[in-house]
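2024-03-11 09:14:02 DEBUG pipeline.ingest accepted 1 chain
2024-03-11 09:14:02 DEBUG pipeline.ingest length=260
2024-03-11 09:14:03 DEBUG pipeline.predict start
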Amino acid sequence: MSTIFGLWAKYAQSRPFITIALTEAFISLIGDGIAQNISIYEIDKHFSPSTSGDNDNNNDKSQEPTTIKELNSEQKSYDISRAARFSLYAVLDAPLDVKWHHFLDKHLPFPSASSAQSIKPPISFQSRIMKHMPRLKVVGKRVAVDQLFYEPFAYTLFFVTMTHMEGGNWEDSKAKLRSTFWPTYLTGLMVWPVVQAVNFAFVPLYLRVPFASTVGIFWDTFLSWMNSRTPPQPDSKSSSISDKNGAKDISSTNSPFVAT
């Protein structure tokens, strides 16, 4: 295992873009796979015999829309095309993430080793904190810039790109953003500041993107699930992707990932 990691680390430093891209593709497949299994479970639960029996008291089962039935049957199997889209996006996005971390390192650098060594050895807890305060300030600045500027851009890019990959248009993208951007961003603020603080403070530059992605496997699950939700349809026409994602609204009502 150490040999495999050593080989990966070598290529991550010498050829970061291709190495990180392939790593991100693999991690995203895991996250999307978890999301799809959750969707399948929720749909099966919704259409279970016991649930259907309860619904029959109020509505005739024959009144259930045919499209919902058809989409429900489709969602009971693993969607390879959805996984491929999610993985492809991860590959395309990886170089941007790598560039972003290099940008932060360049424009918000840590204090040099020489300046740190010039500080007298700490003799108390307070002096120890003061010794590391310059580094902590840089970490705080990086986290703030990352969460205030890069994350909103990254979420927008993700949902717009995924909508177009699914065959949607700009109206569909705007509808998707209206329904998913703020829940995603606000949920992310409860997770990523802490993760990125650890990332910026302790993880080497070439490991930061994969570290965040590994920690974020469940975040990839959340993103995949959020993207699979059906957005509100534009007023003029029904969107071109509504039929593809229609059944996934069923799982959104009880999903454990809904932000509260």
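2024-03-11 09:14:41 DEBUG pipeline.report Residues 17-252 form one domain.
2024-03-11 09:14:41 DEBUG pipeline.predict end
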